[in-house]
């Protein structure tokens, strides 16, 4: 199934609960995971009905790669992390979304992936706001 | 760090042990994970020194997305899986590699990711050969 255009697209309710708004890029809505354990952003292509990367049209896939790269570069610049973990999984939330997580050697899940690890530890409000603002500025979202 | 060209590139020894050869695409070496639990391929961009997607030049990133899409489409066509899981993690093996895993509701790790789950269950030899051949044919690797 090829996904449709942005019209009528809505953010999945579970993603909305777990994350906060950063801003929109050309294709993706950028959200920050409310988990103080890991600097973590989620890119959600604004395409109705897409659950897999291969549901996207080819031009959207190219744009997705550009936005993944921008998000990964931003997280790396902000955090000076040891490793980036990037994944499109979606076993629980079918709406296509791509995780970009900044990892450090010795962080609580290291060297395992963060998905399916311990429950999120919500940020203090001002710390979350500062993280979101740094991502927004690094991505050039106004 | 931007990665270098194919000259001098060598497959990481751990990836070599865990997988078997399928063939080469324009950018990536395609390997099949020797784990009968999940149909699973690994794409390894043949670029010296790349550990992150953002280490690749932009043209290589576009090519990587095309090859991820080809690999994902092949696995979906072969397995009729319920979900594809795609990830670039590399916490244990630094050489950049992208996992594409065909998942079924109710498979042993479902709905968790397969990374860090139970140890691989090696295929019977002829079953592995048949899986590799089906991936090779679907990808048009001669």
Care to give the gist of this entry?
The first copy, chain A, is α+β, with helices and mostly antiparallel strands and 142 residues long. Chain A is 30% helix and 21% strand. The longest helix of chain A is centred in the middle third of the chain and has 22 residues, at 58-79.
Structure in words:
Two copies of one chain form a homodimer. Chain A contains three helices and five strands. Chain A has helices at 13-18, 58-79, 125-139; strands spanning 19-24, 28-33, 40-45, 83-88, 98-103. In chain A, helix 2 (58-79) packs across helix 3 (125-139). The longest helix of chain A has 22 residues, at 58-79. Chain A starts with 12 loop residues before the first helix and ends with a helix. At the A-B interface, helix 2 and strand 4 of A face helix 2 and strand 4 of B. Strand 4 of chain A pairs antiparallel with strand 4 (83-88) of chain B.
């Amino acid at each position: 199934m090829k996904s449709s255009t942005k019209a009528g697209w809505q953010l999945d309710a579970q993603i909305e609960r777990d994350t906060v708004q950063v801003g929109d890029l050309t294709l993706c809505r950028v959200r920050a995971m409310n988990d103080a354990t890991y600097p973590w952003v989620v890119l959600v292509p604004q395409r109705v009905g897409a659950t897999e990367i291969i549901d996207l049209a080819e031009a959207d896939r190219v744009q997705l790669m550009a936005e993944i790269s921008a998000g990964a570069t931003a997280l790396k610049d902000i955090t000076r992390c040891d490793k980036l973990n990037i994944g499109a999984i979606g076993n629980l939330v079918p709406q296509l979304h791509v995780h970009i997580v900044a990892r450090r050697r010795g962080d609580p899940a290291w060297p395992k992936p963060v998905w399916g690890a311990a429950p999120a530890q919500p940020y203090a409000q001002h710390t979350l706001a500062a993280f979101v603002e740094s991502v927004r500025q690094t991505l050039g979202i106004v």
